[in-house]
Fold each of these.
Amino acid sequence: MSGYHPYNEADAIGLARSFENVFSPGADLHCREIGDGNLNLVFHITEPATGKGLIIKQALPYVKVFGESWPLSIDRARIEGEALKIQHALAPELVPQVLLTNHEQAITVMEDLSSHVIMRKGLMERTLYPRFAGDISTFLAQTLFFTSDLGMSQQEKKLRQQSFVNVELCQITEDLIFDEPYREHERNNYEDSIADEAAALRIDGELLTEIALLREKFLTRGEALLHGDLHTGSIFALPESTKVIDPEFAFYGPMGFDIGAVIANLLLNFASQEHWSQDEASRREYREFLLEAVRGTWTQFSAKFRTLWDEQCQDPVFSKAPGYQDLYMDRLLQDTAGFAGAKMIRRIVGFAHVADLDAIPDDAARERAKRLGLLIGKELIRQNRTIRSIEQIIDIAFTAAAR
Ligand code: ADP
Ligand code: MG
């Protein structure tokens, strides 16, 4: 990484000035670093006179954990920039436009989406997103189909896999999702009040077997170019618009991992409504919206993916084999359920949590919400290989909440 140095605000303004079609020559530019600074710098540059803006994101060569530095290759910025370009080409309305990538400086310059709200925050405020299921299902169908052996040249896909070998970020997923929550580990993080649940995970043989199968799938099935970290903190939303950001975990993996991430985060918020909805009626109403989003995400994804398959699949075997598409979609739903469950559990007992649950101020409500999230997550994992319909996933959440 010769020549690499972390940018300061003056560097960021200097680079921003070169975008003459965004900012006026010699304009007064303002710059603010808005990232949390643990992993990446995010500079927001604005021209107050015109209201125009740009985002400059730069990878740092380390992560801060326990106040210590853990080295992490800045090559992930190249992966993020390349993934954003591919995803933008496949779903232009749903992904920010990239204006520049500089691999040596680990920089991506992109469209400013500050008018949007991070969806996790919006969900905690009980915002309704009527477009979400339609938009995210389009994002998933377009990006997964057209990067898979169904929708692109199988030779080019192999070459593309080479440039998305994401060793270090995949290891984070492998450790944090498919390992640490199921044993004692110093990075695990949970309150004493749910220590019984965490201990039970470690000796639940049925669950451990399913987690091993999911881990195997994550390690071995290079089906499509995944976003790799598609939680509601990587989605910018407004009721009328949806944008997917932050694909630094992108790699070739099992499609159900991305679809499962969306569903897991909707269901984590579902659990957190123990607090964010203050009475039964409003809780029931918002949970209905969330379950409808889960249903719509799968049913619309499935319909769009099947249409792409019917109309655009070039593979001579896959396009004709009777019943193959149905078997493929059944397995994809099962993977979705299993990965969703694994993602819920890690957010409650593992290292990195979600604000939906952790920001609940009342101890009793927080404990109830976390136990509910764990119950849903465990059932999704336990039942994943027998799931035949999205209604079963919805039923798991509904039944768990009714207990
Ligand atoms: P990290 O990978 O470090 O999590 P993100 O890509 O999630 O970084 O960005 C961190 C924060 O920076 C986001 O939560 C959002 O507030 C802001 N941000 C990132 N990209 C944009 C963008 N294109 N437009 C506006 N804000 C952005
Ligand atoms: Mg992020």
Amino acid sequence: MANDFTYYAPTRVVFGKGTEAQTGTLVKEQGCKKVLLHYGSGSARKSGLLGRIEKSLEEAGIAYVSLGGVVPNPRLSLVYEGIDLCKREGVDFILAVGGGSVIDSSKAIGYGVANEGDVWELYDRKRQARACLPIGVVLTIAAAGSEMSASCVITKDEGGIKRGYASDLSRAKFAVMNPELTMTLPDYQTACGCTDILMHTMERYFTNGGHMELTDTLAEGLMRTVLRNAEILRDHPDDYDARAEVMWAGSLSHNDLTGCGIREKDFASHALEHELGGMFDVAHGAGLAAVWGSWARYVCKDCLDRFVLFAQRIMQVEPGRDAEETALRGIAAMEAFYRRIGMPTSLHELGIDPTEEQLRELAEKCSIASGGRKGSAKVLQQADMLAIYRAAL
Ligand code: NZQ
Ligand code: ZN
């Protein structure tokens, strides 16, 4: 059954070659006084992108201060630094130049400046944000979809606690997307990005919360496109068209287009991965690939129709003797794809070998972060989370 829904995608997308040259004009249209230019750990400086953005801001006569150093699994400590800097300098707009980590760090800084109190309380579910500084994005990696999403994921340095917070207040005003900018990515990061993009739609596809034919068709087209182009990029990282397909898919996969009419999204694989990212600092996409197969085998009987559709329409496997065998073939085919693009399909392949005590801690933290229950394909509780972590070893 198709459920009621609200679809809100207010971000202006400026897509194509050389579009970063328009950044100064786009910021100027926002009517701000001073900008925080926020970026990562080195790639944007090294590629020359940051220099071009600075030039574009200067040509448009925009005053700005800079804060670099965002790391993957962005840290709360830098967010605090950014909040102090913005307050001191009177910043009223944040320009994120980077990927999900830089964008999420920008959103957290934006919340911290616009709301009283400790910003971590939002991630700790203690209160809701009332406002956020406006944010613009120049995207350098197709992956998290944060350039059009309402979400923001931050890691608290002490205890490695990774938590998300979502609000439409933080949706970017504009996103500049030049697929060429992603050509400097290491192959591993390109593959991590493709995995994350696929997963954002799969988390909405594997549901017991109703569906719509149009949403399914969009979701299936998106998944097939990313599967095909991820393999093109493995062999030809400079293929502009493949970069463009993947980049646009990254935004559409997480701006909720592929979730319209679905009452419950699953997002259990994401919840399981976030704890791995917090505890072991692994790349998000690789962490997802490492747990997905174990999650899928654990839940597929409870969401069999969707797993069969996935096996037939996306992975295009030969049907098995019964629905369950077909579903399992689809899961195996997806894992084979992950291996082909250099992604792990177990925690060991991810490069971590958690002890039984650490697995228990992961499951406990995952359960706390999810309020005790997570998922739609199958509702998971702490014992289920532990079983999946164990199966993923
Ligand atoms: O910091 P630099 O030097 O730029 O290096 C980055 C980083 O090491 C590098 N990189 C990015 N663009 C590059 C580049 N290297 C060369 N050339 C380029 N053009 O790539 C590495 C990964 O960057 P990062 O921003 O961490 O990647 P991603 O976009 O995958 O973001 C991951 C973060 O987003 C969160 C994840 O949990 C993780 O913390 N997520 C955010 C979501 C959201 N806000 O909606 C949803 C996602 O599910 C996800 O949870
Ligand atoms: Zn993700």
